[in-house]
Write a structure and sequence with these properties.
Layout: H1 5-16, H2 38-41, E1 78-79, E2 84-92, E3 98-105, E4 109-116, E5 124-132, E6 137-157, E7 160-167, E8 177-183, E9 194-195, E10 202-210, E11 214-221, E12 229-234, E13 244-247, E14 251-258, E15 263-269, E16 277-283, E17 294-296, E18 299-309, E19 312-320, E20 327-334, E21 339-341, E22 352-359, E23 365-372, E24 378-385, E25 395-396, E26 404-412, E27 417-424, E28 437-445
Length: 447
């Protein structure tokens, strides 16, 4: 692992002089560990990553096209002590059972994909809809495809959007594997779909897009990723290039993002003797490795997420630090591939798992995570952290008593950060109850 000395010393110096603000989670305690993200910790269900959200302005600030009024008493969850937080209330994205929403912000609107639960034993349906800057739906939701997985990705392109998902074989559709479907700027899906051959055994995948250059898929294959990690380039017309095998060893969670003329690919490599390590490599536009693979040790678990801004890749992941319960960390990597450091992410005093990451402008990155509360509830939260590894005060997303957040996705900028949480009033050991709903809200300045 290569460490950049100057950047690492800068981070260390700031930590020593007390610039790192302490975490504050009023709902956390130091009681006995309670296992809540059952799908990850028991090895059941999906452990997909939340990839780079695909913002078209990959390196700068997405413009704030709308100024929110001060909601005052109508925004009780906005923390006025720090001047930032949830504005208004969370609202259900759908009337029916739904989960695992993913989104992309293109500077003026969000493109959102989510999964609507099917009947028992049947495939669920992937839907897509556009939302304006105030969070109102534009036109009606459209059906994208069928899936048995909880992993979907949506990216913004020069021609609209592309949704990636694991298609489920049906009587009318024999294909099983990764499928891409374009959505026009008007929110209508293309008639034709793009099937990624030989992906019937994909364990996890990431998908990102570079404006006018095309996209990149990164996926692991085989049971628990035992068949290795592959990259596959997609040209701007959605023509697939040949896949490239990046590793022969087991890879679980995967994530990919575009930087300045180079792709950053990350995955959890399960070939070490001390638990899964974070692996990172730079890729060219064809998906080939340009710099030697880098590793960060630590028992990685669950999802990973990646984003890019101001010459720095950020990889959010959860690891067991010296045998403790998993906690979220952010590995910072220069665009040339040098690892800067891996500071902890404040906000989770107990078991915490990363779910999403976004670049939100000059402030830096925003990390979406789940934390365990007393009684086994899981609660979503957000921590903003700079490219020097300095976190701001964490933000807890309110959760009703007895309910649990089962995931969080974020996309937007500092002034208007859209959040999508899966709220389950009757949480199950694995999967989602019939009462689960994807909920939408906006985080931003209180005034």
């Amino acid at each position: 692992m290569r460490i950049n000395p100057s950047r690492a010393l800068s981070v260390l110096a700031m930590i020593l002089v007390g610039l790192v603000s302490p975490g504050c989670n009023s709902n956390s305690s130091d009681g006995g560990a309670v296992q809540t993200d059952m799908e990850v910790m028991r090895g059941l269900g999906d452990t997909g990553s939340a990839t780079d959200m695909g913002t078209i302005d990959m390196g700068g600030d997405a413009p704030d096209v709308m100024v929110f009024p001060d909601l005052g008493v109508f925004s009780p969850h906005c923390d006025r002590a720090i001047g930032y937080g949830l504005r208004g209330q969370l609202s259900d994205l759908t009337a029916d059972a739904s989960h695992s929403a993913q989104s992309v912000w293109n500077g003026s609107e969000w493109g959102v994909a989510w999964i609507q639960v099917g009947a028992e034993g049947e495939a669920s349906t992937v839907f897509f809809q556009r939302f304006n800057g105030s969070g109102s739906g534009i036109a009606d939701p459209v059906e994208i495809g069928k899936t048995m997985s909880a992993t979907i990705r949506v990216v913004g392109t020069q021609d609209g959007y592309v949704v990636a998902f694991l298609n489920d074989r049906t009587n009318d559709d024999p294909f099983s594997g990764l499928r891409l479907r374009a959505v026009g700027p008007d929110g209508r899906p293309a008639f034709t779909v793009i099937n990624v051959d030989a992906t019937f055994d994909v364990h996890d995948f990431g998908f990102a897009w570079a404006p006018f250059s095309g996209g990149m898929l990164l996926y692991s294959r085989g049971r628990a990723g035992a068949s290795g990690v592959f990259s596959q380039a997609v040209d701007p017309s959605l023509n697939l290039q040949a896949p490239i095998r990046l590793t022969q060893s087991q890879g679980t969670a995967t994530a990919v993002a575009y930087g300045d003329g180079v792709w950053g690919a990350a995955w959890l490599a399960a070939d070490g003797g001390a638990g899964s390590e974070l692996a990172f490599a730079l890729l060219d536009d064809n998906g080939g490795v340009t710099e030697a693979e880098q590793r960060v040790s630590g028992g990685g678990v669950g999802r990973i997420a990646i984003a890019y801004g101001q010459g720095t890749f950020g990889v959010a992941w959860s690891k067991r630090d010296e045998g403790t319960s998993p906690s979220p960390f952010l590995t910072l990597i220069e665009s040339g591939g040098d690892i800067i450091g891996t500071p902890p992410i404040d906000g989770t005093d107990r078991l915490g798992l990363v779910h999403s990451l976004a670049w939100i402008g000059q402030v830096g990155f925003a990390v979406g995570w789940l934390s365990t509360l007393d009684g086994g509830q899981t609660q979503a939260g957000i921590t903003r952290i700079s490219t020097l590894g300095i976190p701001l005060q964490p933000i807890d997303i309110p959760v009703d008593e007895g309910a649990s957040h089962r995931g969080i996705a974020i996309a937007g900028n500092q002034g208007r950060l859209g959040i999508w949480v899966t709220n389950d009033p009757a949480p199950q050991p694995a999967g989602y109850s019939e009462a689960a709903r994807s909920q939408f809200g906006v985080v931003g300045p209180c005034n």
